[in-house]
Specification:
mainly alpha
Length: 182
């Protein structure tokens, strides 16, 4: 029988293996569920790179929404995980914004994961730590070609009105990004 401590150690290794492509998505999913059932600490940080949490790993690898259900299930099990930070002090949402800014995540994948995090209670005023350090609304506004993100922008604003006033490192709000995108 695996103890919760052993399951947590195995989860850290599994996150690393998945991140580096040393296991399949199917194996990763099955193993995470098994380890969670064995009492693994789902808030543990990995030992590679920025020491991300499981949530960071999932949003960073959520291509075409393939991990949407896993993200939702994880956030139901551990709702406060949206507040957990990596070694750089980034929540999963801040990490996701930085990943998009660094071209590690496609915009559609970014939007899908970001909205899932916002709906789960992530702080939507959080800034990235790259470039001009934009907020979620700033990224959505600056990529709002032909109003494609209007619904997402409205939803983020309705979830947290403070997001409308959140500023990047230069003091620009999402409205400034929206105006600059024209």
């Amino acid at each position: 029988m695996t103890t919760p401590t052993e399951a947590t150690v195995q989860l850290k290794k599994l996150m690393s293996d998945f991140h580096y492509g040393n296991c399949t998505l199917a194996y990763f999913r099955t193993s995470v569920i098994t380890l969670a059932n064995q009492g693994a600490d789902l808030t543990v940080r990995a030992t590679f790179g920025a020491e991300p949490t499981l949530l960071h790993v999932l949003v960073g690898k959520n291509t075409n929404g393939v991990l949407d259900d896993d993200i939702a299930q994880l956030l139901k099990l551990v709702p406060d995980l949206v507040k957990a930070k990596d070694m750089y002090g980034r929540t999963a949402l801040a990490y996701l914004i930085a990943s998009f800014q660094n071209n590690h995540v496609q915009f559609d994948d970014f939007t899908q994961s970001a909205m899932a995090l916002a709906k789960a209670g992530a702080d939507t005023t959080v800034r990235s730590n790259t470039g001009a350090e934009p907020t979620l609304l700033a990224v959505l506004a600056s990529n709002n070609k032909n109003g494609a993100n209007n619904d997402a922008i409205a939803e983020v604003a309705s979830l947290n009105a403070s997001a409308l006033e959140a500023k990047d490192m230069y003091g620009r709000t999402a409205l400034a990004y929206l105006i600059a995108s024209f």
